[in-house]
Amino acid sequence: MEKRRPGRPVGRSDIRDRLLAAARDRFLSMPYSKVTTREIAELAGSNLAMIHYYFGSKEGLYKAVLGHVAEPLEHAWQDEHCGHSLNELLNTYYQVMAPNSELTSAISNALANEKSPGRDFVLNRLLERQLPQFDALLETMKSNGELGEHMDPDMLKVSFLSMMWQPFVMKDLYEQVFGLTVDEAFMTRLAAHNCRLMENGLRSSVI
Description:
The protein folds into two domains: 15-62, Arc Repressor Mutant, subunit A; 70-205, Tetracycline Repressor, domain 2. The chain is 71% helix and 0% strand. It is built from eleven helices and no strands. It has helices at residues 15-27, 37-44, 48-55, 58-69, 71-78, 86-97, 101-112, 117-143, 153-169, 171-177, 184-205. 22% of the residues are buried. It comes from Aeromonas cavernicola.
């Protein structure tokens, strides 16, 4: 008879899913520091031991939630049709982010707090997918003569990442100072504007 792993729950395979759902509800509606594993366990009808068993810690559970929420964006980076041009890469990003309020909120909250474990997750896991695509695009554009010699690749990279991330990091400021509503309609409008801005800027840079 096969010996079961010590501490392994028997006949309760849905516990992990319930914990993840409860954590998603708490982490996406409250600051990381305000959420407790005890309340997550109670909401899931489980206990702290199961959180430790499946996720190791509060931080592990939080990163699992972020990974689950970020799946649509990660799938977009893996799309072989994405990234043929800067415009396509930016459009793909906005198309995923615009209708996904949970993803937008999760990334915004994670980046806003320097001490949040979610910040490292976003920077390391998501950006590592974006930057290689961007670098490859720059090389292709150079080879095709689409990028002027005087264009600084590092500054272009900074500008591109700013276009991608700033709307979500600065969401509250946009709404409070400019009276804008950062919703799906706004993101669609911003995507069109940034694509035109980038296209015209790159075209004018070619000598």
